[in-house]
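Holo prediction — calcium ion.
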Amino acid sequence: MPLTVRPRRKRSTRIAITLLSGLLPILLGSVILYMQAERTLEQSARHTADEALRQFELMLDNTAQAARDLLPLAGETCEEVKLALREQVTRRPFVRSTNLVWDNNLYCSSLFGDFKEAVNEGDYHEGKLWLMNGNPVTPNTALLVYRLSDGRGGALTTLDGYHLSNILRLIGRETLLLLQVGNNWLSADGQVHQGPLPPLPVAQSMLVSPDHAFSVSAGFPKGETWRYMADEYPPLFSLLIFFGAVSGAIGHVVQKRSTSPSHEMLRALEAGEFIPYFQPVVYGDSKKWSGAEVLMRWNHPKEGLVRPDLFIPFAEHSGLIVPMTRALMQQTAALLGPQSAVFAQPFRISINITASHCRDLELVEDCREFLAAFIPGSISLVLELTERELIEPTDITLQLFEQLHALGVMIAIDDFGTGHSSLGYLRKFNVDFLKIDQSFVAMIGIDALSRHILDTIIELSAKLDLGIVAEGVETQEQADYLTAHHVNFLQGYLFGKPMPAAEFLRALSHD
Ligand code: C2E
Ligand code: CA
Ligand code: CA
């Protein structure tokens, strides 16, 4: 096919562009989804840390309240305050034990009553909180001790690590959640560790309690963003792949378009590859040449001579048919103009036009220029408009045909019998000729119905006083029939095939 033989880009480049236009939305979409997943994880970590913080504060508020209630009792004998200590343990949620201190010595405990143990203020973060890994009663079980002191007296209330690790486990679920008190931190497994926090590589979020000396850190392990995307985004990924495919297809089509028929034809037009062929038309009676129809051929550099039905539809579609016809008329004028003197009677030169020509008045100028190349009166110009695509009788078209007639240009309805032009239509456009479609001519002697239509057309043209041309005449029988029915002009292989200019000019001079 001539319209696709000259790709503008190399195949590999085209494939690369198609792939790129398909991959680009997928890549961009993936980046956006990745950022979205990161955002979601960050929000989730912050939310989790926030929730844990509130829970820990609630617990510590209870522990602190117990200490506040007991602090005024510091200094009194253990015997006197023992019950009060135990009462706090019973009344306050989360409080595991209560103790009183005098001069940095724990001297009374809710658990043991009289007791003796030195208190080291340095163990307590900000002097307030100590996250310890168990005590002699419950070794290896996390314990959070709250310290409140005033002068020589002090109260220590403890919170069971079980409650703490429970929160880390339950609220954390998908998130890594850690409670940090000074240099110590607690993980969801209930273990207390010393030293800096382990890294939480994805979406780390740290919240410091405004009321107590602890902080909460939340985050996710490495690779969580991808895992999250794989879990949550499969439908979006399917959508991305769909968009990628659509975009790739569009890229492909756009590229194809850029090497599309109209581009290729524009190039051919500029290169002068559209050339006229000439087919003689003869008088019905004498069979002498009455004129010729100009038929376009594409002299393609690679494909050779291309038939018009392979490219005229594209040319019409793109509007290129107008400049192509203009170029054809100019070539024809240049070839036949110098022969003006040879033409005995006005030589009828037929040019095919389309509906695109009828949108403005440019055609009038083209015809004027064409006629100017000939000795006045030596030719008559006939424009053939196919009945298959009839034009609307608008102001412009009516004006166009009026001006053409004023120039002496004649109008023929081509392929007559295949469309639906009415009598009114023929009159409105002041048609001069009907060209019987070759399908009816081919049926002469074969099909009675077609012959009937043919007879009707011939009759009609006589009644309307229109000239009549029969095309596609291939046999003597057809010619005889048409002549017998007074068809004025005959055209067909019987009298001559479409031929290149040189051959036509040679035949013309011998005619
Ligand atoms: P058309 O205007 O009906 O032209 C007549 C077609 O019939 C031509 O085909 C011609 O070669 C062919 N033909 C002539 N005598 C015979 C015959 O005895 N037997 C057979 N089987 N065919 C015969 P072609 O040249 O291939 O053109 C085909 C069509 O392309 C034309 O049909 C016309 O519609 C279009 N075309 C050709 N040149 C132009 C042009 O310059 N402008 C426009 N708009 N259309 C053109
Ligand atoms: Ca024609
Ligand atoms: Ca025709």
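READOUT: The domain at 280-292+321-510 is CATH 3.20.20.450 (TIM Barrel).
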